[in-house]
Every structure is written in C-alpha cells, then in structure tokens.
Design brief:
- The structure holds three protein chains of three kinds.
- By secondary structure, chain A is mostly helical.
- Chain A contains 26 helices and five strands.
- In chain A, the strands form two sheets. Chain A has a two-stranded antiparallel sheet with strand order 1-2. In chain A, strands 4-5 form a two-stranded antiparallel sheet.
- In chain A, strand 1 and strand 2 form a beta hairpin.
- Chain A is globular.
- The two termini of chain A are 53 Å apart.
- Chain B is mostly helical.
- Helix content of chain B is 81%, strand content 0%.
- The chains are: A mainly alpha, B mainly alpha, C mainly alpha.
- Chains in contact: A-B, A-C, B-C.
- At the A-C interface, helix 16, helix 17, helix 18, helix 22 and strand 3 of A face helix 2, strand 1, helix 3, helix 4 and helix 5 of C.
Chain lengths: 669, 220, 317
C-alpha cells in the first residue's frame, strides 16, 4: 500500500519534469514546478513518516515488469528505507519551498526546472529499490540529473570543469558499486536483495565488497581521498540544488553503504571497522581544515559537508566494531548516533546553503572577503544563518550537540572491545572527532563573522537587501526543526529504534519513558543529557540577568563611534580578513597544508604596498590524482597507435586473440 | 595496601614516561639539562620504591648512584662544559614538535602492545612497568634520532639508559643490577668526555690545557 | 516538602558560585600584588567594580548589532549554567543529571563562540585579533578537555560529575591515567581562563591580548557581565579540579545541613588553596609567545590521549 502510493508520487515527479520541459520559459513555470515538487515531497514525507513510526503496518513489495527479465524492478519500504525517505523528502520539501522564492532570480530556468524533479525522483527510487539493477539505474539517474543541474550555468568555465570532474567520479563510483553487486550476486545472477541476503559467499568476498562500497558509495558521500569533486561541484550548482546535493544526496550514499555493508553482506569482521574508522577520521579532520581556508562561502560549506560525512563514518565504523564483537547495545548506540547525525546534518547544512544562496542573490558575491556588515542589512537571514552555525558547531541546546554527545558515549563503551587494533584505533578516532568539532566551531565563527559581522567591505555588501519571504520561511522552518530536535531528541531516537534493531539486532532503551524527557543512552547511572532543561536554564538565567540589571542597575545606552583603542580607522579594509583569521590555525597545522608564503616587502622609503601571497595546494590532487591522470594520458598516447595500423596488423591482432583463447581452453584444467 | 603499592609503582613509572616527553619538548640547552636531572630523580625514586617492595637492598645502591651521578654530577658537569665551550644554547631539531610528540605517542602505544602481548603470562605489576620502561627506551631513541646537537643526543642516550635501569629494577631478581648500572654510567661518562675532547680539538686544534689557558689572554 | 528542600539546595549552589566568583578574583589579585611586593586592591574590590560598572551608561559603537548587545547576557547565562552544574559542596543535586562533563565543555564552547562573534561585530582589527587567537587556542583546548573527560569517565564509569565525585571519594587511588589527566586539566584551565603563561588578564598591549582584545568595545553593564562570566569560568575550572581530584569534604545529597556546611567550608578552603597555587605559578613564569601556546596545549592533548590510550589498553592503569 505504502509502496504503491510512493511509486505514484514518483510518477507525479516524473510528470512534473516533463511538464517543465513543455512549459519552458513561461512565467508561471517556476512557481508551478516547484510547488508541485513541494507537494510531492510532502506527500512522500508523510507516507514515510507513517511507515517509520508504525512499522507494523504492512508494506508489501511492489514489482514492476521493467528491468532485468528474470528479476523485474522490485521496490520495498523497510525501516531503513523509511528513515532515509524521511531525511530525503524533508530536505527536498525545504529546498522546493526555498526555490519558490530563490528560483525567481534564476536566469536560465529552462536548464534547471526539468532536472530538479527528476533529481528528486532519482534519489527516492534509489532508496526504494529492492534489487541491484534498479538500484544502479536509479543511482546513475540521480548522478546524471544532478550533473545537469551542476552545469546549468555552463558559460562559466569553472562550472564546466566541476561538471566534468563530477561525472568522472560519479561514473567511477557506479562502476565500483557494479562490481560490488556483481560479487554479491554471484554467477547465478540473483540480483534481488532477498536473494543476496540468502546467498552464501566465499570468505574473501565480503572484504572486497567493503572496499568497493567504500570507493563507490564513499566517493558519492565525499570520503577522502575521493572527495575532490565535492568542493568543485556543490558550489557550481544553484543554491537549492547545492543544499540538496550536500545535505541530501550524500545521505543517499550513506544509505547505500549501510544497505550493502550492514544488511546485504552479512556478519562483519572486526578489521573492517579499522578501515572505516581510519578513513572516517582522516576525512573529518581534512574536511574541516580545508574549510578553514576557503574564501568562497559555498566551497567552505562543501568542505564542511566532507567533515560531517567523516563523522558519520566514524559512527558507522564503531557500529561495525561492536557488531562484529557481539556487543549489541553498544552497536545500537553507535548506529543511532550516526543516523541522528545524518538527519541533523541534512537539516543544518540545507539551512546554511539556503543562507549562502540568500547572500548570493542579495549581493551577487560568494567571496566572504568582499562581504561584511550583512547583519544590519539582512537581519532575518543573519539570525537564521547564525542558528545554522550554532547547530553545526555542536553547541547545546541545538541538535548538532545531541549526535556528537551520543557518539562520544559510544566511544566511551569501546574499551570492552577485545582486539588490539581497535583498542588503539578508537581513542585516536575519538581524538580526531573532538578535534574536528572544535575546528568546525572556529570555521563557522570565521564564516559568520567575516561575512555577516563587521563593516561592509564592498559596495555590493553595502547595498544588500533582505531576501524574499519564501526563502526566509524555508530557513525558519529548518531552524525550528533543529531546535526541536535538540530539545526533544528522545522522540527521534525512539523513531530510529526499528531501523537499528533490524541491522544490529538491538536498540537503545525507549527514551520517552525517561524522566523529564532526557536522553539516557545506557543507564541513568552512567550518563544522561536533557536538552530541554539546559535550554530552560539558559533562558531563565538570561531573562533573570536582564531583569535584575535593568531594574536595579542601569539600562541607559548611547551610541558613539567605535573605541578601537582611541584610533578608529574609517576604512573597512583595516578589519580582519578571512585569510588573517585563519592564519594562526593554518600555521599550527602547517604540515597538512604545505602552504607556501611569499612576502614582497618594499624597501623603506618606497611607497608601494607590501604584498603577501599565500599558495595553498590540495595535497591529494598532487599526490593522487595528478599522477593517475598522467598515467592515463601516457597510456592513451601509446594506445593511440592502434588507430593507425595496417590491415595486416589488424588481422594479426584478430589472429593473436583467437590463438590465445584456444590456448586457454587447451590448458585450463 | 596491595592496590596502593601497585599504584605508586605505576605512578612513578608513568612519571618517568611523562618526563621523557618533557625532554622531547625542550628547545633550550639549560632547560634540557634541568629536565634531565628531574628524569634521574624520578628514576631513583622509582628504583628506591622497587627496592622497598621487593625487599632488595642492593637496589637502594642503584638508586643512590642514579641520584648522585645522573641527577647532580653529570648535569652540573655538562652545564659547565656548555658554558665554557660556548655551544649553541638552542637545540636544532629534525621535524617540528608536533610530529615528534605524535611519534612519541605512537611509540608508547607500540610498547604497550608489544609488552602486554609478549609477556601475557607474567605478573601484572612487572609487565606493566616493563611496558613503561620500554616506552622510555624508545622515547630516548626518538630523541637521539630527531636532534642535531651532540649534547642533546647524549642526553637522549642517557635517558634511554635510565629506561634500561628501570626495566632491570622492575624485573625481580635480576642479578648484578648495581654493577651493570655502574658500568653503563662509566660508559656514558667516557662518551661525554670523548665528544667534548673531539670538539675542543676541532675548535682549537689541540687539547693541551696549558695552551687553552694561554689562549684566554688578558684574564689575569 | 522534600522537593522544596532539594530545589533550595540546588538554588543555593547556583547562588554560591555567583557569590564566590568575584571573591576568588579579588583574593587572587591581592595575593599576586603581595607576592610582587605591592599592597594590592582590597579583596572585595571586584564586587565594587561590578556594581559600579553595571550602574554606568553603555556606550555602543554606531554599527554594533543586536548580537553585540545580547552577547554578554548569553555568555553570562551559559557560563553560569555550566558553573552551577559542577558539584561544589554536595553531589547528587536535583538537576545534576541534566548535563554531564561533555555538555559542560560544550556550554563553555558556546560562551566562547558568542564572545568571538561579539569581538568581530564592530569591525575593528583588535576584535579580529582576539577572536582569531581565541579560536586557535580553542581548537586545541577543547579536544584536550574532551580527552581528559574521556580519561576520567573511563576510570569512574560515568561522565556525570556527581557520579565521578562520588566514585573518587570512595575509590581514591593514585592512578597514572588520573595523574596525566590532572596535569592536562591544569594546562587546559590555564589556557581557558586566560592566565599567564597563555594570556595576561591585566594587559593593555595588543601584542599580549587575547581575551581583552575581544571585549575592547564593551562598556557599562555589558563589561560587568563579561567580567562576571570570566570569574565564574575560573571558579568552574577550580571546582572541576576539586571535585574530580580532591573530592574530600563533598557532602552527598540528603546528608543534612551539618554536612552541607562542612562541604561549603571545604569548598571555600579548596578555592583559596587553588588561588594561592595559581598565583605562585603565575608569578614565577613568563608569558609565552602566541605560537608557543599551541605546543603547550598540544601537550595537554597528548596527555589526555595518552591517559585514554592507557585505560583502553588495561583497566588497571
């Protein structure tokens, strides 16, 4: 029933895409198309919420007569699918609502409108797919429709380059997943998920599948070193699409990882968690360190996505470790922490990207070095963006803190793991997690402080105006959800319970029964956290302080020029710039960045300005990708000779192949 | 009481590891010598405690030798020599402090794993103290490898030797501990003297003390 | 009836930290002056300063925003809530389970975030300097604090400070990991409270400013709130060290007024003793240059990591 309803909503989305092609440049196209997307997303959200909260409702699988002849296209909603459908469609609804306002500023709507509903539909189908073929087709479809959106503004050469790298990495990822499914299905060709679960595999297959899934789903999620396309592609797309790609499409990749590694492959082995933990922690720290150096607001947010994906993978690694050693309750805690973080991240990252989009439409700039003082000119956007920054820096009482706290509690359960490698790896991963959290706070102080606070650094920033109502509504809705999830996380944890139960065999204790609605991960005697109480305390203390001081002391106020130690400078260029803010951290972590500084200091008496050039290179490009593209270029150079052979040589090739095949048949035992 | 005994032994051994990290952190010559004196003091306290627990009075002599020689005589002598020869007051390192510290942590982890796996059947007190002692040895080696200055390399060698003495004291019933430690100290003293004689000869082309005195010129 | 008593005790704790914070500040300054052979201000001078400042008119920069105006209240509120959650004279208070050590660290982090943003709000270079340096220190001090929290939690079996204090009271022992955690916590406390050798609380030179640079534009009741928050933070860290490493004298909830009175006396005694040690340390050491501080904080991070590692390897460390 629910599956059928979902499939009808997806058909509606496809219809919307076709309608968008038909309407082309008509005036009402934008509002109509995004409105229809909003309606479809809300319908899907409702269906999946019902399915998640009442898991005992029957949800039979649906099979369409398309796809592979002996498998068909199977679709099913189980607990994991229902949860990720909620995440995806919440983000999609928010993006559609935002686009109702933002889409009016789009110069070439004909290049964006048809692909947006297709992108939404593609993501949903990946989640619904119950066999490998539909999964992969939907995965490719999702990549291609998002690629079309990335190169929507194709006149900018940076965007075309971003699109090219994106489609390369996406194809490479799909290829890895294809191999993974092939290994799982085996020579019998049982591509349905049910057959794969039932099949037994050779002992070396699960490990290889893990590696392939890390490459395939990991590159789509943004794991280092396969993350390089993310900071190029996410900023290139229009803002609502960037929000979807960062906040939502990465979660589809997480779904793929969980489906394959927790569900289809069978019981995990302990050393898998070491790989996942290592990759996750490296990604988390690298992502945030590079985010600290970015001047482009959207690229900063993209690198921050990389960091958060790393955090989610740390949690998944912990869950794998606990599950492989049979510690069910701890595995449930770790997996719950990851899933809650996935939901949280989709909320606040979408909020932040919407804010960046608002700034882009108001000023036409993404470079924070040219912004400043926007808090006076765009007060509502500034407040909502600040809320997003507070959430992503994991500060109570908002939602980012809840998932970080749960993950720290999971790490504190790890000394009971028996293997030595895990005993050494988990504290290191915990330290990297803590380091990432602290650095992300620094990153967002920089982003918000330089872009919104201070004095305007350019005329565009000076003349910015507030965004339209739809954008503000979408952002406000997301911030409200962030606050609610931070104050009442118990409900979310309980809703995730069936998902976790299905995949690790245990679930966290029911949170709605605990006193005052706190979060109690294991037992009251160990630790608990109550977001609602903390929020109430902070509110009461603030109001008490305001009341006492204004009544008994003074509430007088007078405006005057800034003090600045007695030497106020009128030029806004004397403020701190984004580069100077990040300089101490760049210096502390200089081994990671390999930044080269060149200072051009004029001699005394020379009136020309001094100049400092800082060149930060991405190590991963130079050490990994540049050599690979070099070899490929070399190989293709050499292989090009095959284009110019004589007829005799071509015949020789055919003859040689035939002989080799016959020899193989002769020798093979 | 048993718990207390164990805890103090661990605390002293862990303190020695902590002081080894402090040795890695220093970048001034005189501070390095002071921290090395502290290293020797902690070692002698640790050996004295082992003497008390194991009721082995000959270990008190080892503790006394460590205290007298390594905490007082050698640092004072090195201090005088550094001043007299005008050796560089700051220590040039290979690689920054951050990577060195991370490598140090890795070495501690490595020695924990090695010792706790290899000696899995032994007495827990001895095993864990041995793990700490191996850490001190490895950290001393790390210090020798990451320093360019001869004096700091010698200090590293001496801290390595302190780790060996700790290991020897911790293992119950090891014979000739006192004799071995005296022999090592004499060896180190000869190395130190040798290095400085070499440097004096390089600088002044002679080790004739009379010539050095004359060279001092208008002192008297 | 019992509920009212419990709430009253919890409220007493909140007011106690508030009342005692300026006293600790005044005591520290007087002691430091004495050590430097000066007479120093009277011990109750901070109370007078706060009263005087809060009665003054606020002079606000022309382009200061609502964030600048509301930040002092946010900073004060979060620091006060965090300080009220650390057991001072009694464990197991009515709301003590609502936030654990990790939440307290995060609350202090949010106070710091608002302070840094307020520094950047007016658009002067001083504010930028302060904010940038503060976030650099925070990026190392917070992980160090979390690793120390892990070490303590692994020893005591819980991150809830009441349980930790109760555990340390009954199972006191000289453990290596606790020793490492103590040294690390002292280093982090010095860095977070802007004491010498990390930052000079009495400085007027831009070269040596971190905390002072961020609050340069504040005046009147705003600066009074921020000074109070800084004093509360110092009291919080001292209380933290006292309740984890020196838990003797702390009463348990429900023990009765005599035990509470003893607890308060013990607590004030610990505050004064820590002030003496802090002042002696500050007077005997010089301030580090800014780029030595990350190495100093890196030591704390390494010690926390080492402590956690030792406990992962063997529970008896």
């Amino acid at each position: 029933m629910a599956t059928i309803a979902t499939l009808w909503c997806l058909a509606a989305l496809f219809g919307t895409a076709v309608l968008a092609v038909a309407l082309q440049q008509k005036r009402i196209a934008t509002h109509l198309i995004y409105g229809l997307c909003l309606a479809a997303s809300l319908a899907l959200l409702a269906i999946s919420l019902v399915q998640l909260i009442y898991p005992t409702l029957p949800a039979p699988a649906a099979t369409l007569p398309v796809g592979l002849p002996w498998v068909g296209a199977r679709f099913r909603i189980d607990a994991l699918t229902a949860f990720f459908l909620v995440v995806i469609n919440l983000g999609a609804a928010a993006a559609s609502l935002y686009a109702l306002g933002y889409g009016e500023h789009e110069e070439m709507p004909g290049r964006v409108l048809p692909f947006f509903p297709a992108f939404l539909a593609g993501m949903n189908i990946v989640l619904l797919a119950d066999d490998a073929f539909s999964f992969l087709i939907a995965w490719e479809f999702m990549s291609l429709s998002s690629w079309a959106l990335v190169v929507a503004h194709h006149r900018d050469p940076e965007n075309t380059r971003a699109g090219y790298i994106y489609v390369l990495m996406a194809s490479f990822g799909t290829f890895a997943l294809l191999l993974a499914f092939g290994l799982l299905a085996g020579p019998g060709g049982g591509y349905g998920f049910a057959e794969i679960r039932a099949a037994s595999h050779a002992p070396w297959v699960p490990g290889l599948v893990l590696g392939l899934v890390l490459v395939g789903a990991g590159s789509k999620a943004g794991l280092a070193p396969l993350h390089v396309w993310l900071p190029l592609a996410h900023p290139a797309a229009p803002s609502h699409v960037s929000a979807l790609m960062s906040g939502v499409m990465t979660k589809v990749a997480i779904y793929g990882f969980i489906r394959l590694v927790f569900d289809l492959v069978g019981h995990p082995v302990w050393w898998w968690s070491i790989v996942v933990l290592a990759v996750g922690s490296a990604t988390a720290v690298l992502g945030v360190l590079f985010a600290l150096l970015q001047r482009d607001l959207k690229r900063l947010l993209a690198y921050s996505t990389v960091e958060n994906i790393g955090i989610i993978f740390i949690g998944l690694g912990l869950a794998l470790a606990f599950r492989s050693d049979g510690m069910g309750a701890a595995a449930a805690l770790a997996l719950t922490a990851s899933l809650v973080h996935a939901l949280n991240h989709s909320l606040f990252k979408s909020l932040l990207f919407f804010g960046a989009g608002a700034v882009l439409t108001a000023t036409g700039l993404r470079d924070i070095e040219k912004l400043g003082g926007l808090i006076q000119r765009m007060p509502v956007t500034a407040f909502l963006f600040l809320g997003g920054c507070l959430s992503i820096s994991a500060l109570p009482p908002l939602n980012g803190f809840v998932s970080e706290w749960l993950m720290f509690q999971a790490i504190l359960l790890s000394p009971d793991l028996p293997e030595w490698g895990l005993k050494l790896m988990v504290p290191a991963a915990g330290a990297m997690l803590a380091l990432g959290a602290a650095l992300s706070a620094a990153c967002f102080v920089r982003a918000f402080g330089i872009a919104f606070l201070g004095r305007p650094r350019s005329s565009e920033a000076q003349s910015a105006i507030e965004t339209d109502r739809m954008s503000r509504t979408a952002m406000g809705m997301l911030l409200t959800l962030c606050l609610l999830m931070g104050l009442l996380p118990g409900f979310v944890i309980d809703a995730i319970g069936p998902v976790v139960q299905a995949h690790v065999g245990a679930r966290m204790p029911a949170q709605s029964a605990s006193t005052w609605l706190s979060v109690v991960p294991i037992a009251e005697s160990r630790s608990s956290y109550n977001g609602l109480l903390v929020f109430v305390f902070i509110l009461v203390s603030t109001l008490a302080a305001v009341r006492v001081i204004h009544s008994f002391a003074s509430s007088a106020l007078r405006r005057a020029p800034a003090w600045d130690c007695g030497y106020p400078e009128p030029s806004p260029a004397t403020q701190y710039t984004a580069d100077s803010f990040a300089q101490p951290i760049r210096r502390v972590f200089s081994d990671v960045f390999r930044a080269s500084e060149r200072v051009d200091m004029p001699a005394p008496g020379d009136a020309r300005p001094a100049r400092i050039d800082v060149n930060v290179r991405d190590q991963i490009w130079e050490t990994l990708y540049a050599p690979i593209s070099g070899w490929i270029a070399y190989a293709t150079e050499k292989m090009n000779h095959l284009q110019f052979l004589t007829i005799r040589r071509y015949m020789g090739l055919v003859f040689g192949t035939l002989v080799t095949l016959l020899l193989t048949v002769a020798i093979w035992p | 009481m048993e718990r207390f005994v164990l805890d103090v032994a661990h605390l002293l051994a862990g303190g020695l590891v902590l002081v080894s990290f402090m040795l890695l952190y220093q970048d001034r010559m005189f501070a390095l010598l002071n921290v090395f004196a502290l290293h020797a003091v902690v070692l002698s306290l640790s050996v004295a405690w082992q003497a008390y627990i194991q009721k082995a009075p000959h270990l008190y002599i080892t503790a006394g030798i460590a205290m007298a020689l390594k905490a007082v005589i050698i640092p004072v002598a090195l201090h005088r020599v550094v001043v007299a020869l005008g050796i560089h007051r700051s220590i040039e390192t290979v690689g920054g402090i951050g990577p060195t510290m991370l490598a140090g942590i890795g070495l501690v982890a490595l020695s924990m794993v090695v010792m706790l796996r290899a000696a899995a059947a032994a007495d827990p007190l001895a095993r864990e103290d041995l793990a700490f002692a191996l850490s001190v040895v490895l950290l001393g080696l790390l210090m020798m490898v990451t320093r360019r200055n001869a004096v700091s390399q010698i200090v590293g060698f001496m801290s390595l030797e302190n780790g060996l003495i700790l290991a020897a004291a911790g293992a119950k019933g090891m014979p000739l501990v006192v004799e071995i430690s005296v022999a090592f100290s004499v060896l180190v003293a000869f190395i130190v003297i040798g290095v400085f004689l070499f440097r004096i000869r390089e600088r002044f082309d002679s080790v004739d003390v009379q010539a050095l005195d004359d060279f001092r010129g208008e002192r008297r | 009836m019992a509920l009212i008593v419990e709430l009253a005790v919890q409220g007493l704790q909140m007011l106690l930290v508030l009342a005692v914070a300026p006293f600790v500040l005044g005591f520290t300054r007087k002691l430091k002056a004495r050590l430097l052979r000066r007479r120093g201000p009277p011990i109750i001078q901070p109370y007078r300063d706060l009263l005087r400042l809060s009665r003054k008119e606020v002079v606000l920069a022309e382009n200061a925003s609502w964030l600048f105006r509301s930040a002092p209240y946010m900073i004060f509120a979060t620091t006060w809530v965090a300080a009220a959650l650390v057991p001072t004279f009694a464990t197991g208070l009515y709301f003590s389970w609502s936030a654990d050590l990790i939440a307290i660290t995060a609350l202090l982090g949010s106070a710091r975030l608002f302070l840094a943003l307020a520094g950047m709000d007016v658009g002067t270079s001083f504010g930028g300097i302060g904010a940038s340096r503060e976030m650099m220190f925070a990026s190392l001090a917070e992980p160090a604090m979390l690793m120390i929290a892990f070490t303590v939690a692994l020893v005591a079996g819980s991150t809830q400070l009441s349980h930790v204090a109760a555990f340390m009271q009954s199972h006191a022992g000289l453990r290596v990991s606790l020793g490492l955690a103590l040294v690390g916590l002292i280093i982090v406390s010095i860095a977070e409270n802007a004491r010498i050798p990390v930052d000079n609380p009495a400085t007027h030179l831009e070269l040596t400013m971190v905390h002072e640079a961020m609050v340069l534009e504040y005046s009147g009741r705003h600066i009074a709130l921020i000074e109070m928050a800084a004093a509360l933070k110092l009291v919080l860290y001292i209380s933290l060290i006292a309740c984890i490493f020196l838990p003797w004298g702390i009463a348990t909830n429900g023990d009765g007024p005599v035990a509470y009175a003893l607890g308060v006396t013990a607590y004030v005694g610990k505050l004064m003793a820590s002030s003496v040690l802090l002042v002696v340390f500050e007077t005997s050491i010089a301030k580090m240059r800014v780029f030595r501080v990350p190495e100093f904080l890196g030591i704390a991070l390494m010690l926390g990591l080492l402590g956690t590692l030792l406990l992962f390897v063997s529970r008896s460390f």
